[in-house]
Amino acid sequence: MSALQRLDAAIERRGERAKLALLAGPGVGWLLTLILIPMAFLMAVSFARISSSYDVVWSLSVANYTDLFVGENGPLQTPFIDSFVLSLGIAAITTALTVVLAYPVAYLLTRLSGRRFKLVLFGVLVPFFTIFIVRIYSWFAFFGQSGLINSTLMNAGVVSEPIGLFEFGVAPVIIALTHAFFPYMLLTLYSSLEGIDYGTIEASRDLGASRLEIARDVVIPLSAQGLITGCVFVFVPALGTFITPQFLARGKITMVAEVLTANINQLYAIDYGAAGSMFLIIPTLLAFMIVLRTTSLEAMG
Amino acid sequence: MADSEKHSRLSGAVDDAGLVGTVSVDRVVSAIASYGMWALTLGIVVFLWLPLALIIVLSFMQNSVGLFPFEGVTLGNYVSLFTNESLMAAAQQSAIVATTAASVATLVGVPLGFAIARRTFRGRSTLRGVVILPILMPGIIMGISMLILFRVVGISPGFLTTVLAHSVYGLPFIVLPVTARLAVFDRKLEEGARDLGADGRTVLRDVTLPIISPAIAAGFVFAWLRSFEDFIRVFFVGGTMDALTKEMYGMVVYSQGTEAMDPMATVIVVVVSVALAIAISFRDILEYV
Prior knowledge:
The complex is a heterodimer. By secondary structure, chain A is mainly alpha-helical.
């Protein structure tokens, strides 16, 4: 390669690089300054002290964390830990429910076409696109001591006292979250099930596999990727939900997002709130790594 | 789809011909499973619609807190919704934020989609992954982390910070469909146009953009909706700026009367239904979800 050719190649490379910078630069800048840097800053701040007027005192300390973990009654006996464990449980149950409900519907969708397919899709997607806060609110009228369920039961004379299950608390939160996140699970499962060659299922049936065996040995392994992605996209937002317990638990239970909000917006315990946020950031990053490992991102979108 | 249906009909026929007389347990199980699946699907559609149906009904009730005691039917709730000036102003403000944020997300996201789909560079696969973070991270973390950084740097929360937050929140909804569309795009169309003498700009304007524009449009709609429906981010980074979701939150949590909630929810359900019915009948919208 002559010197001139090399120069040409270098100029072209530089041109390409400039074009790339022009294309990707703003997007990368956006993600850096609005997602990655704030998150890194939050992590850093959780080891420092901040005043209520947002003046940071950069002294390395784990005081915020000990505040989270150690309560008056001893280690791990704090309202924060309680709310975090409760939130984990609620998110896990919600995820499991969406899996159980979405698998058959997703499978059915892959077997349908034309008008029936569109009808089922419409039935599922309208609630999905109805804004989140409305979906959560839509369960509001059902619950509570004088909610629709309890008042109907009492008017009909079935019970004389309101039933605890239908009062505000854990049950309505899980129902509303399942209702709100079901479509995420359905759509990811559907797209992974749709990729399965139906011939494989037919072949295993011809070879004498029962329905259960086909589900266990063919359908579930082949759709595992969608299942994992779906679980992640239900579990993480469910874990961090704020509106849902505010509307449907009404103080009966406290989820982790409510503790964080109270600390930052009302008590101005910013550093304590920053440390608590780690309990949502770490699951997010774990989920992120799981998604990167399992999903070919070419297939996303 | 049609192929596999033919396939299953075929195997059904074989069963009919070959297994007459033998009691085929598997077929009974198969029938039960099939009906069961339909029943479950119907049940789930009912579950998904039930609360929405209830608020639609409640929106016409005199007594808007519940069905009991039944006090009659009215349009009064709608009148009080549309004459509620602060609510209407908040809705308008939310629409302005959503439109600005989705536009910014589009301007930033479309080129990023091109870079990821079309160019090879170091860190490309990492970037491709990081793009999904704004959807994956809980809204409260996005809100808190931005609020603290903005506050410490000295930017006060308000319209600008909300638009910034929502624009990055909407970014994946633009980038993902654009890269997906570009991945299945037949580059020969561009080469052909170039061979016929079109320059780079003309190819982009007359060939590439028209082909990916449905993906951009779908992404814009999703980004807009995500901004419009967001509460937790605007709650943290919105400062004193009003937003529809903040008003709704106040009505429910501080019991400022929910009679406007039901008609508002009804309006939203109707708008979404109509828009979605149109979208589904014209396009395979699952491509973009």
